[in-house]
Amino acid sequence: MTSGEPRRATGAETRAWTLMRRCQGARTPALVGLSLPGLTPRQQEIATLAAQGLSNREIAARLVLSVRTVANTLYAVHEKIGTPDRKALAEVLEYL
Length: 96
Prior knowledge:
Elements: H1 5-22, H2 41-51, H3 56-63, H4 67-81, H5 86-93
Pfam families: GerE (PF00196)
Keywords: DNA-binding, Transcription, Transcription regulation
Protein name: Response regulator transcription factor
């Protein structure tokens, strides 16, 4: 397995999860048990605020964190769910 394969696999899983949510009731063997790669509660909270359009600085102020902690957390979120940017993150989290 090459170094980029796990990330591509995660990205494919995230895209499949997103499409499945858009196709209510879709049931195939490939979709059984498919879920968004797990985020910690803090990652979910920061990702949700970022998807709503808050800047790293605004998120940090709201949650009493450093801007660097917010940036590092968002980097980890993007890695886990395979999104390249906030717009894609918002699409996955359905805030658009």
